[in-house]
């Protein structure tokens, strides 16, 4: 699971109000090379909840993202490289996503989060 | 004497039309009919009986006949707006033609007369001693039992679920005893050397379903050495059926068109009628099929038969069985007791999710064509769009564009794993680095609201067992849009 996915996921158990962002339990983290495309990063930037990305990256051991961001930083190559790495290259192979409201754990195995709900959760 | 017409065997358009309530008997002359149809070339009007109100009209091709039928089904002023009965007609077959058709079922000892390009039969390719020694040696090998026959693989294992081999994992080498035979084969086939061998042991009467060997799996000819007993093999293409007798110790070579475009088939039957010989009972037959593993996509001139190009592999029996399960689930739902939500969900688990988990690798190998309309839709999205691919299956839409993010999800963990292979650079193809996969239910999408530009939901709705569940899925899908006036695509093939 890449952090771009984490940034879009939200706990969807019935009744949960604040299901975003999931906390991360990281048991195994990998990094896979992805083509660096600054234009893609500039385009996607507006969709990203920055605090969630920064905290998620930190929980996977990537702590070079700035505390706050602005649109001007999208011209800075060092920033783009760090953003690219955190968003698309770092992947959670084994671990879990934890609902911030209920503490319900969704396992992540072989890089794939399993977000299926039990019958009483829908 | 005029040509005799008859009803066609099926409802497909032919190049002849039957017109009822029309003709000289009701005051419409042949001349008038020809004038009404003047826009079509080479029209022939046939009146089978001047006293009956019916004529036959023959056109250059079925397309013209189809257009004419449309025209004639509307009121025609020149016919006083008289309503016509318009049907397709076929020419009656002459006795000679009927004869020719019967030829189709016969089995010939010499395939040369069929003129199928690339098909050859080399009689007596090995000696009886060689045959006996091979049969003895194979008897001690490890047989894999299939539904009706048993097999051994050498060089590479052939996987029947995917109808392909894994070039990365070689299996046991071919028996050393084959050395001299392989040398002879090399001489006979311009230096061609196989690297894969499948041995089939057919009990008397057992056959083989009609098929063309997977193009993407093998390159060059497909060569089959027959041992022990004779069997008929039928070659089929475009409705033609050509039977060839394969005697023991003969080598069948299928190359070019014969290998790429003709299906081969061994009828399941107890005896074969061989031309010039008569009825021959089937005995046990062992075949050694030699092939060469292909390592790049096929670019042959028969895209309609080629899984590397336009064609999907036809479903295996296993996949058909899975389809049947789904159909019976559908049937169960039309019972009066339908509607219980839990019941519907259970059905989906039993008949849809479990089936897909079980058939995932095979299913995936049959689904790689990108639907053109879907590609068009994906191409219309803005750069940097975030797209959910709900029910992503094997993830075939992940790589359509590299400048958008695709979040795939599937209810089947098996399919999600297959899709995940596209994300890793080891899969051989370039990895889809802007895509990702989760296991999730389309009924409860796990995305924060407003984060998506588009949702792809392709050929998914038919898996949901009630209309209510389908509507719920629609509404929840709409919930997660970035801009609610924005994009959604729900494609179902009806």
TrEMBL record, chain A:
<protein>
    <recommendedName>
        <fullName>Multifunctional methyltransferase subunit TRM112-like protein</fullName>
    </recommendedName>
</protein>
<dbReference type="InterPro" id="IPR039127">
    <property type="entry name" value="Trm112"/>
</dbReference>
<dbReference type="InterPro" id="IPR005651">
    <property type="entry name" value="Trm112-like"/>
</dbReference>
<dbReference type="GO" id="GO:0030488">
    <property type="term" value="P:tRNA methylation"/>
</dbReference>
<comment type="subunit">
    <text>Interacts with TRM9.</text>
</comment>
<dbReference type="GO" id="GO:0070476">
    <property type="term" value="P:rRNA (guanine-N7)-methylation"/>
</dbReference>
<dbReference type="GO" id="GO:0046982">
    <property type="term" value="F:protein heterodimerization activity"/>
</dbReference>
<dbReference type="Pfam" id="PF03966">
    <property type="entry name" value="Trm112p"/>
</dbReference>
<comment type="similarity">
    <text>Belongs to the TRM112 family.</text>
</comment>
TrEMBL record, chain B:
<dbReference type="Pfam" id="PF13532">
    <property type="entry name" value="2OG-FeII_Oxy_2"/>
</dbReference>
<dbReference type="GO" id="GO:0070988">
    <property type="term" value="P:demethylation"/>
</dbReference>
<dbReference type="InterPro" id="IPR037151">
    <property type="entry name" value="AlkB-like_sf"/>
</dbReference>
<dbReference type="InterPro" id="IPR027450">
    <property type="entry name" value="AlkB-like"/>
</dbReference>
<dbReference type="InterPro" id="IPR032857">
    <property type="entry name" value="ALKBH4"/>
</dbReference>
<dbReference type="InterPro" id="IPR005123">
    <property type="entry name" value="Oxoglu/Fe-dep_dioxygenase_dom"/>
</dbReference>
<dbReference type="GO" id="GO:0032451">
    <property type="term" value="F:demethylase activity"/>
</dbReference>
<dbReference type="GO" id="GO:0016491">
    <property type="term" value="F:oxidoreductase activity"/>
</dbReference>
<dbReference type="InterPro" id="IPR041698">
    <property type="entry name" value="Methyltransf_25"/>
</dbReference>
<dbReference type="InterPro" id="IPR029063">
    <property type="entry name" value="SAM-dependent_MTases_sf"/>
</dbReference>
<dbReference type="Pfam" id="PF13649">
    <property type="entry name" value="Methyltransf_25"/>
</dbReference>
<comment type="similarity">
    <text>Belongs to the alkB family.</text>
</comment>
<protein>
    <recommendedName>
        <fullName>Fe2OG dioxygenase domain-containing protein</fullName>
    </recommendedName>
</protein>
<feature type="domain" description="Fe2OG dioxygenase">
    <location>
        <begin position="193"/>
        <end position="294"/>
    </location>
</feature>
